Amino acid sequence: MAMFIVLLILGLFGGFLSGLLGLGGAIIMIPLMLMVPKLLGVGALSMKAVAGLSMIQVVFASFSGVIRHRKNRFVSMKLMLSLGVAMAIGSGFGSTISKYMSNELLMVAFGVIAVIAAVMMFIPPRTEDAENITDPDSIEFNRILAIILGFIIGSLAGMVGAGGGFILIPVMIYILKIPIRVTIGTSLGIVFIGAVMGAIGKMATGQVDWLLALALIISSIPSAQLGSMVSKKTPALVLRYSLMLVIIFTSVEIWYKILAK
Fold first, then answer.
1. Which residue, among 16, 11, 7, 66, has the nearest Cα to 224 in the 3D structure?
2. Are 182 and 125 in contact (CB under 8 A)?
3. To bridge 84 with a disulfide, which of 23, 157, 188, 190 should be the other Cys (CB 3.0-4.6 Å)?
4. Residue 3 burial class via C-beta count within 10 angstroms: exposed 0-12, middle 13-18, buried 19 and up
5. What 3 state SS string does 53-91 have?
6. How far is residue 140's CA from residue 241's CA, in Å, rounded to a whole number?
């Protein structure tokens, strides 16, 4: 019961983060689920259990958040499908070929890209907001480039078993030139597509503790809605700085793991 309550609270945080910034939240939720229950003395979760729980949490949090962002007109379905399908295919490809590649090489490559993503966030984007956009699908972008980038990001993420959302967001803002609010809403939809694929695999192989997953589901759905509503009212500059902090944190975490090995 104590573990259930702890995960309930962590789910509130993870869901809010998903809705606010358009990230799945797994990159932060995974270390929290590994550390917090142990620190509070309510038990310990294995990495396998945490991976299964995290995937389920991301599915429900991203789905809840993207619904609200869609109502707020911050989701481009055209962009979501172009990037989402390409990333899903790339993830499957990356997961397959990773068997034949050095784990150290993969982590270093991913770490370098994470640093590039963090540095990109310091560059002021041309379009900070999307207040005047009534139809996100009217935003012009290079679809061929989006598909190629989606496949590359998905492949890299699939190779190292990560979601890749923290790399996707800078790419959408600075390369595809998508306004930050539409980037956040659309990336959440892309995260959802990828998470569904991953969750199917976790469920099919019996890697989900459904009692504990229920705690994350119950708390993630309303908190993702709240995060999405707060995101709409938050200045675009604040959202960009918040994303910058999360992406820097992720980069540091990846390099810590590389250097620790």
1. 16
2. no
3. 190
4. middle
5. HHHHHHHHHHHHHHHHHHHCCCCCHHHHHHHHHHHHHHH
6. 25
- 7's CB contacts (< 8 A; 6+ apart) are 33, 37, 53, 212, 215, 216, 219
Does residue 28 surpass a pLDDT of 80? no
More confident position, 126 or 49: 49
Domain ranges in the chain? 2-260
Residue 222: pLDDT over 90? yes
Phi, psi of 177 (to 5 degrees): 60, 45
132 has a pLDDT exceeding 70: no
Sign of the torsion formed by the C-alpha atoms of 212, 217, 218 and 220: positive
* Count of C-beta atoms within a 10 Å radius of residue 177: 15
| Tokens 């993503």 found at | 117
One-letter amino acid of 248: I
Check: CB of residue 247 under 8 Å from CB of residue 170: yes
